Amino acid sequence: MAAEKTPFYITTAIAYPNGVPHIGHAYEYISADALARFKRLDGYDVFFLTGTDEHGQKMQQTAAAEGIDTRALADRNAATFRALQETLGSSFDRFIRTTDTDHHAASQEIWRRMEANGDIYLDKYAGWYDVRDEMFYAESDTSTGDDGGRVATDTGHPVVWTEEDALFFRLSKYQDPLLELYETTPDIIGPDVRRNEVVSFVKGGLNDLSVSRTTFDWGIPVPGHDGHVMYVWVDALTNYLTGVGFPDDTEMFERYWPADLQIIGKDIIRFHCVYWPAFLMSAGIAVPKRVFAHGFLFNRGEKMSKSVGNVVDPYALIEAFGLDPVRYFFLREVSYGQDGSYSPDAIVARINADLANDFGNLAQRTLSMIGKYFDHVVPVPDDISDTDAALLATADELHGRVRYHFDQEAIHLGLEALWEVLGETNRYISAEQPWKLAKTDLDRTGTVLYVCAEVLRIVAILTQPVMPSACAKILDLLAIPAHARDFAHLGDRLDAGNQLPTPVPVFPRHEAKDPT
Ligand code: ME8
């Protein structure tokens, strides 16, 4: 029953739908989905929010360049982002669009609260603006780019000179409260390297932030200030509140807010760890418990960009390798929180070694021998040797070990722990040689195969967050009923006497190929 479970609210960044999604977006969705699924299987009442960030100058400019209405651009591309999430098997509970009506109401409400707290004032903005990142820059943070134009020094993105009437947020007032927040709740930002980056940025001093725009109108109107629309990041960040019922559905809001885990990419840490908590403190709303920044994905070590022509289409990868192998690859290969590189060769190598050999072969050997020697019926284990008991004990410890890693968003280490046990089990089966034992000692053969099948059950249950359909196939082959696949059932033992279906291979081998 949902009401008895502990709530867990997890979010992704909401993407700009000014173009089609790329593999970096897919990576964020896959990783957040694995974390959401893990918590759900571990007994939490999870609410998983994702969506699209549809306002701002970039959207308006892109639509104008395409000669279409901004709303039409948003509708078309938001549908593409949603379809990608569905293709990726993302288990989101709501796909929010910042053009949704309830989001307008929520954004205006947080604005009113910040204003009521005395944190908004009218002034003039004169400075640089990066449309691509929707970000203001002081003169000192810009320089002359390679082509002679002005660029943001840290990203190299072009900036344009902007002068307009604007409302400002008293960000400077929050410097000390923010530093105190990072000090008293160090877990609020992960990984540590990002927290250190944020702390030194805030220690360097905060300027007040321009939070309204008056030179275009594609945004949420500022209440009480005609002609002003909100700076896109104010409304974008507020999506996390809207998604759980702010301000009207107080029951839902009190249940899920503050968010337990906000997953974002490392390039938007300042917005989420400086501006966002400052807005919330100003509005008298609790700050999120944790913001975790994943790294960036590179194509063969190179930054993906449209001009270089190396942007990876996630659909092409799924088409080439299958969904679950692609999910596994990114979550195992890249240390979560750090940058990572992708190449078709690396994917093929991982799939063949980890999936086809380690996991697939173990399942195939075990299940086909249960078929051959026991007529597809799970054998009754005979005397359990010390070796059997040690292997089963190692498998039983996996739940705690994997949870420990997932709780620190170390998804790759959780998978490593699971694969260590698969490796041990493969060594066990090679040492015990059940195919030879079957000629002399069928009881011992049955015990060995039972132990292997039991490890497979435990590993398949715990790997579901990363490879939901492949693990479901393995659990089907072990005849584990649907209700016995959550982590609360890890301590059950496989039922001897279960009739198993004819085994089919779950993880085919791949030849090297380049889908890009
Ligand atoms: O930043 N590798 O939207 P966005 C990994 N609308 N992650 C990547 C990536 C890459 N190569 N490129 C982008 C925005 N991302 C804002 C967010 S949230 C209130 C508003 C990640 O479409 C990026 O870090 O540019 C971000 O977390 C997400 O994709 C959306 O990026």
From TrEMBL:
<protein>
    <recommendedName>
        <fullName>Methionine--tRNA ligase</fullName>
        <ecNumber>6.1.1.10</ecNumber>
    </recommendedName>
</protein>
<feature type="short sequence motif" description="'HIGH' region">
    <location>
        <begin position="15"/>
        <end position="25"/>
    </location>
</feature>
<feature type="domain" description="Methionyl/Leucyl tRNA synthetase">
    <location>
        <begin position="159"/>
        <end position="367"/>
    </location>
</feature>
<feature type="domain" description="Methionyl/Leucyl tRNA synthetase">
    <location>
        <begin position="9"/>
        <end position="140"/>
    </location>
</feature>
<dbReference type="GO" id="GO:0006431">
    <property type="term" value="P:methionyl-tRNA aminoacylation"/>
</dbReference>
<dbReference type="InterPro" id="IPR001412">
    <property type="entry name" value="aa-tRNA-synth_I_CS"/>
</dbReference>
<dbReference type="InterPro" id="IPR041872">
    <property type="entry name" value="Anticodon_Met"/>
</dbReference>
<keyword id="KW-0067">ATP-binding</keyword>
<comment type="similarity">
    <text>Belongs to the class-I aminoacyl-tRNA synthetase family. MetG type 2B subfamily.</text>
</comment>
<dbReference type="InterPro" id="IPR014729">
    <property type="entry name" value="Rossmann-like_a/b/a_fold"/>
</dbReference>
<keyword id="KW-0436">Ligase</keyword>
<comment type="function">
    <text>Is required not only for elongation of protein synthesis but also for the initiation of all mRNA translation through initiator tRNA(fMet) aminoacylation.</text>
</comment>
<comment type="subunit">
    <text>Monomer.</text>
</comment>
<feature type="short sequence motif" description="'KMSKS' region">
    <location>
        <begin position="303"/>
        <end position="307"/>
    </location>
</feature>
<keyword id="KW-0648">Protein biosynthesis</keyword>
<dbReference type="InterPro" id="IPR033911">
    <property type="entry name" value="MetRS_core"/>
</dbReference>
<keyword id="KW-0963">Cytoplasm</keyword>
<dbReference type="InterPro" id="IPR009080">
    <property type="entry name" value="tRNAsynth_Ia_anticodon-bd"/>
</dbReference>
<dbReference type="GO" id="GO:0005737">
    <property type="term" value="C:cytoplasm"/>
</dbReference>
<dbReference type="Pfam" id="PF19303">
    <property type="entry name" value="Anticodon_3"/>
</dbReference>
<keyword id="KW-0030">Aminoacyl-tRNA synthetase</keyword>
<dbReference type="InterPro" id="IPR014758">
    <property type="entry name" value="Met-tRNA_synth"/>
</dbReference>
<dbReference type="GO" id="GO:0005524">
    <property type="term" value="F:ATP binding"/>
</dbReference>
<dbReference type="GO" id="GO:0004825">
    <property type="term" value="F:methionine-tRNA ligase activity"/>
</dbReference>
<dbReference type="InterPro" id="IPR023457">
    <property type="entry name" value="Met-tRNA_synth_2"/>
</dbReference>
<feature type="domain" description="Methionyl-tRNA synthetase anticodon-binding">
    <location>
        <begin position="378"/>
        <end position="508"/>
    </location>
</feature>
<keyword id="KW-0547">Nucleotide-binding</keyword>
<dbReference type="InterPro" id="IPR015413">
    <property type="entry name" value="Methionyl/Leucyl_tRNA_Synth"/>
</dbReference>
<dbReference type="Pfam" id="PF09334">
    <property type="entry name" value="tRNA-synt_1g"/>
</dbReference>
